[in-house]
Amino acid sequence: MRYIEPHGHMVSRTTDDYQAMAMAGCAAICEPAFWAGFDRKSADGFYDYFCQLTQHEPKRAAKFGLPHYCWLCINPKESEDMALAQDVLSLIPQFINSPTVLGIGEIGLNKNTRNEMKVLEQHIELAVKYDQLILVHTPHLEDKRKGTRLIMQVLKSHPKVRPERVIIDHVEEHTIAEVLDAGFWAGITLYPESKATPTRAVDMLENYAAQRVWLNSACDWGVSDPVAVPKAVVEMRRRGHTAKAIDSLVYGNPVRFLSQSPNFKDPQALLS
Amino acid sequence: MSQPHPLTATAGRSKGQVADLHFMDARSKLLDLAAFLDRLERATGPEDHRVRGLRAALPLLLAAGDDRVAKILHLWSDPSSAPIEKADTKSASGVWPGIQ
């Protein structure tokens, strides 16, 4: 089995996690910028974080034979501070041409505030200006449906945003159809408690078109599982899905979406 | 609307096969839910909006249809559509606090 982990916050994980993912068939990891679990006090903290994402973490992953890519942004949880957000947004262009940057993400909303919306719009402008892919974080739990709809309104109202270059992550049963019907890609996040379990994820895959869907663990510093994607694969096998269909979902789909960035290289091609 | 999925294993699956695969897991989770409600019964003080939301979702489990998860998630969602002025917290509780 081979798979891509398209959303893992590896700066929060141990080398044992890299080892487990490599042993489970992971062929590449993509790491969106995110909230550290606490609010950073200045743009200097983000400068260091972007250096970590673009320079240090690829070296750590390479020790396990894993290509490592990243996305850049200020997470919506820190977007309430508009001054900080402006400082961080102004930092991103100096990192955007790093060879492992895939795009702008994970941007989006957290509590669906006006400031979060403004910073989301600025991130989208940045992505359009630099012709970058977009990875969207949708809010948690009771805020998800409203936030997903607000985010899609903003994306759809921008004349230069192409939905096929945007993935809206953390969809669940009440948001997946709206996201796919609008032409975006959808990410299903596998979490032990919040978001989707492997069984619910496979139910969704059996009910909706899976050509524009990826699965991810979004493993981070909280309760999360870096080998959640392989566990969903086991669930698919238990239900009788073919090896070809599984490979198409957990390897083929991420490669198709991510290959829209010139920086992403199909791991299979790198091996041959 | 979204196209049917090419994963075809679902179509030929019998209820017995689904039960063979997932009954014990569902049984365990139902007992955990019952135990949670029992634990609440033994606790003191008023019930908060999260438990109100959980109780409001229980009838949906027995309703017909194959979209129970979506219905429950809709029930627990914030029904408003406009951005709020400012957040007083970074976190979500799992159920919209205004639920009755």
Describe this structure in words.
The complex is a heterodimer of chains A (272) and B (100). Chain A has 272 residues and is α/β, with parallel strands linked by helices. Chain A has one domain: TIM Barrel, CATH 3.20.20. Chain A is built from ten helices and eight strands. Chain A has an eight-stranded parallel β-sheet with strand order 1-2-3-4-5-6-7-8. In chain A, strand 2, helix 2 and strand 3 form a beta-alpha-beta unit. In chain A, helix 7 packs across helix 8. The longest helix of chain A has 20 residues. The model of chain A has no long low-confidence stretch (mean pLDDT 97). Chain B is mainly α. Among the domains of chain B are: 31 residues; 34 residues. Helices cover 51% and strands 0% of the residues of chain B. In chain B, helix 2 packs antiparallel against helix 3. The radius of gyration of chain B is 18 Å and the shape is extended. Chains A and B meet through helix 4, helix 5, helix 6 and helix 7 of A and helix 1 and helix 3 of B.
Mean pLDDT of chain B: 91
The fraction of residues assigned to DSSP E strands of chain A is 5-15%
* β-strand amount of chain B: under 5%
Number of strands of chain B: 0
Give the helices and strands of chain A as they follow along the chain.
EHEHEHEHEHEHEHEHHH
Rounded to the nearest angstrom, the distance between the terminal CA atoms of chain A is: 17 Å
- What shape does the CA trace of chain A take? globular
Structural class assignment of chain B = mainly alpha
Radius of gyration of chain A: 17 Å
